[in-house]
Amino acid sequence: MRSRNDLVTKSKVIIERCDSYSDQPVDAAIHKLLENLGGLEQFVKPGDKVLIKPNALMGASPKLAVTTHPTVITSVVKAVVRCGGIAWVGDSPGNAYANVEKSLTEAGIKQAAESAGAKVVYFQKHGVTYARSPSGNKKIKRIPIANPVLDANVIINIAKLKTHGLTLYTGAIKNMFGSVPGFHKSHFHKECPDPADFARSIVDVFEITRPKLNIIDAVYGMEGNGPSDGAPRKLGLIMASTDAVALDAVGSYLIGFKPSQIETTKAGYKRGLGEDRLEDIEVVGARLDEVRQADWKHAANLSRLIEWLPEPLYKLAAGWITVNPSIDQGKCTQCMVCVNNCPVKTIHYKDKVVKINLKDCIHCFCCHELCEYKAVKLNKSWLTRLIRI
Ligand code: SF4
Ligand code: SF4
């Protein structure tokens, strides 16, 4: 049977091996990726304003694999400048109240961008324009997008390959959620606590922003309790595609998921934004079975259980199958990041300690994602541990 993409051209994902973050191997991998996609000139014309959108979740050292590595950013910026594009590098960290300049400096992104000739744009500082939800989302009808994202002629999306507590996996589609700046992100979590609803809202953001080119930095990705509290793990790859859905289908498969498990990928395919069936994706540069690491540890996430447990049984057991956040008081520095960013304001500072009132918790795991001190623990109930989620 012919797929939708056979009617036009088959989606293509390019995979290049890259053994380290030294300049030379990264430049060589980026060069080959772009060459295999027909050259960057296909996407960038002289004078174009080109927004390069990394994953700059927080001000974490590049060694921790939380953020897109600076060397990859430098390499792409240099390529854009060579094409005559005006390069911008921008994002908004997860903490709505973060000093964005400090965060991007700590992640090495600011220096990497500027040294290669790009201007750094801090999304929080440029206001937003509201776009209508392309899917007719009734929960979030108007989507706030940072103005530099809409002002750019071309967007190059450079994601990091990681596991994720809420969405299972984060790659190309999820990376564009950074286009929603600051406290606006909390609104998405609050209005869409269900992971599938949340994923569909992210796909709205992706559909509005629609990068022309998507790259995933998977030289080192993150396994375990991503997107910030997991462990770096080497995959030794950089990948690219014009089709972010196909790129995520491949990226998630390489770290042990089925593409159909990832809600953002599924929703992207259903909306006709790309291909999620591996058999209908042309993979160039490496065979998937040669580079796949199926034993990656995944984040604690109940949505995997919902997939195979019949709904009535799941509802019956829901009270005992839980993953709840709690604060490790020994590690907590009382920085107030989780208190200020909890979408439902259920984390409080009282009697000189930070505490979570689980009664109102919507399990978005933003507190876990944003705590730089690894002081938010995810506690599995005995039944959750028993069934090894
Ligand atoms: S748990 Fe983490 S984010 Fe929350 S106040 Fe403590 S150190 Fe800050
Ligand atoms: S306590 Fe943490 S997981 Fe619960 S709603 Fe607040 S930020 Fe989300």
From TrEMBL:
Signal peptide bounds: none
Gene3D superfamilies according to UniProt: 3.30.70.20
Classification via Pfam families: DUF362, Fer4_10
The keyword Protein biosynthesis appears for this protein: no
Tagged with keyword Iron-sulfur: yes
A GO molecular function held by the record: metal ion binding
Name listed for the protein in its UniProt record: 4Fe-4S ferredoxin-type domain-containing protein
